[in-house]
Amino acid sequence: MSLLALLQLSSPQLPVGTYSYSEGIEFLVEKGVIYDHLSLDYWLRQELNYGSVRIDCGILVRTYQNIPTENLSKIRAWNKWLSAQRESEELRFQNWQTGNALIKLFNDICATEKNSYSELEPCNFTVAFAIVAYHWGISLSDAVSSFLFAWVSNLVSAGIRSIPIGQTLGQKILFNLHTEIMNVIPTILSLKDDELQSCSIGLALASMGHETQYTRLFKS
């Protein structure tokens, strides 16, 4: 059952709108920073090792760990902390929109679950992901790996549409990143609070540039 829940939570069919966002990929393609499958692969590897997705997963871990004790004050604090780390309006809106959508979906599906997570609004997607993963019986390590896989998969899809590259090359990138994902998980699981840091200058600039990009397919 937990495997099926894991597949559902990380499925691109999950109706929360993540497919609408490219996290700066669209702007980077226009500026020629990303121009083929190799440059997209390189960008994603750098983000996995040094980017803000590490912080996202660090907060996923802390949210998950505070659910059994129903420590909502800690969860609220980490949710607000994560919102403060967003470096552009687009990135904040993306994470709030998808997070609120996921919490609503969780409440609609699991109407009998005891929860008071609606008070987290606006809720970051990472926090919502951790909440659903815990209540659906998904282990913490599996939740982190599925979050990273879904994140990579969505950005590969954005690259396929905006560069553009073919579906086969997109799948090749995704397959080749499996090892990278698995390599960063132990580090993420062991991060201390004062190690929640990233180097996302490129992402921040791309996101801010995208806000005024003339022609856009994506919301960010």
Brief digest:
The protein has about 220 residues and is mostly helical. About 65% of the residues lie in helices and about 0% in strands.
Shape call: globular
CATH fold type: Urease accessory protein UreF
Report the sheet-strand fraction: under 5%
Our count of domains comes out at 1
Q: What name goes with the CATH superfamily?
A: Urease accessory protein UreF
Biggest sheet statistics: none
Report the average pLDDT across residues: 90
Question: Can you tell me about this structure?
Answer:
By secondary structure, the chain is mostly helical. It has a single domain, classed as Urease accessory protein UreF. The chain is built from eleven helices and no strands. Helix 8 packs antiparallel against helix 9. It is globular, with a radius of gyration of 17 Å. The mean pLDDT is 90.
Task: Name the features.
65% helix, 220 residues, 0% strand, mainly alpha, Urease accessory protein UreF
Map the helices and strands.
Elements: H1 2-9, H2 25-30, H3 37-50, H4 53-66, H5 72-85, H6 89-109, H7 125-135, H8 140-162, H9 167-176, H10 178-189, H11 201-210
Helix pairs in contact: 3-8, 3-9, 4-5, 4-7, 4-8, 6-7, 8-9, 8-10
